Amino acid sequence: MIEVKGNLWNHPADARVITTNGFVKKDGRAVMGRGIAYEAKQRYPDIDLWLGAMIRREGNIVSPLYWGLGDWGREALVSFPVKHNWWEKADTFLITRSAFQLMSLADLQPSWKIICMPRPGCGNGRLDWVDVKMMIDPILDDRFHVFSF
Questions:
Q1: Which end of the chain has fewer CB within 10 Å, C or N?
Q2: Taking the model in full, what pTM does it have?
Q3: Are residues 55 and 116 in contact, defined by beta-carbon separation less than 8 angstroms?
Q4: What is the tens place of the pLDDT at every residue in 35-67?
């Protein structure tokens, strides 16, 4: 895992990871109202509908949401659950599980050389990076670039 300062949207990537929660509204859209999830919703119209459908079908797990052309060429967008509900504090067990799931998904994608993600559970999730880093650093390899502003 490599720590990077800056904006993950401005960095070349084969995959971008957005931290998410498992709450789906009555209209079928996932709640994506803050942080990197909100930014993704602005960049990818109806991604909240895709994520809502994935959560209802598969559960609150790591899921590829988009494959296509981005600013830097072909890229993927992947959800990374950190909360069960949008109003809760991030769940450390869920973050650890998501890190293992993300690593497994990345291992199936040999073209993913650079995977950009925010600090999971920090910010709106209200966890301290020092604690989260201790959990995910042993799991994620150097393909993963973890961004902070």
A1: C
A2: 0.93
A3: no
A4: 999 999 999 889 999 999 999 999 999 999 877
